[in-house]
Design a protein that fits this description.
This protein is of the alpha/beta class. The chain has one domain (6-186): Rossmann fold, CATH 3.40.50. Helices cover 35% and strands 29% of the residues. It is built from six helices and seven strands. A seven-stranded mixed beta sheet has the order 3-2-1-4-5-7-6, sandwiched between helices. β6 and β7 form a beta hairpin. α2 packs parallel to α3. It starts with 5 loop residues before the first helix and ends with a strand. 38% of the residues are buried. The structure holds S-adenosylmethionine. The site of S-adenosylmethionine has 22 residues, from α2.
Amino acid sequence: MVEMNPLERLWVNSVNERYVPSLWRGLFTEAELQEELRWLEVGAGKGYVTAEAVDAFDVEEAVVSDYDPGQVAAARRYLGGNLGNHEVSPEFASVDVLELPFEDSSFDVVAASLVLHFVEPRRLRGFEHVPYAIEEVDRVLDDDGCFLSLNFTRNTRVRRTLRNQGFRVEYQQRHLPFLESYCYRKTG
Ligand SMILES: C[S@@+](CC[C@H](N)C(=O)[O-])C[C@H]1O[C@@H](n2cnc3c(N)ncnc32)[C@H](O)[C@@H]1O
């Protein structure tokens, strides 16, 4: 696990919140997800992606997680005031995406917003931990489940690893010159 430095923490809890939810709304209008879905967000930061998902889909169960307990507390506060009249009551967990404490096939959707590069000590340059994160996402996703991810655009290694793990790109959206969101569907 790699702690965020204070600047990253400030950025995640202020700047991201202003711009990132609208990118996810764009993906959510295109993604076709099943009813009554079991949702897991990893590296959730403040949890606003889960708030958007609950608005957009029929989320029956939600787990909002981040390895940093401070972020889990921030997500708990944020979602406490931002779920409107929705009935879902998320669980919150301090969890490392490299070692997810969930049974196989527990979720229909796993979402990761700007997380994959953060599991590497060398951020965008390293690629030692990402394959383990992807294996864990694959393991906890049910057959036919979706991995939704907002990534930096040129991360071909992520796409290749997901493809080798049996995922296909069902939908892809370019947002800025350097950001792209994906819906990867598990195949067989
Ligand atoms: C750039 S922030 C993104 C936060 C939020 N998803 C967003 O879109 O604003 C990356 C997040 O991943 C979390 N993180 C980093 N490494 C992690 C790991 N190994 N397991 C789970 N979460 C991790 C950090 O604590 C941080 O909240």
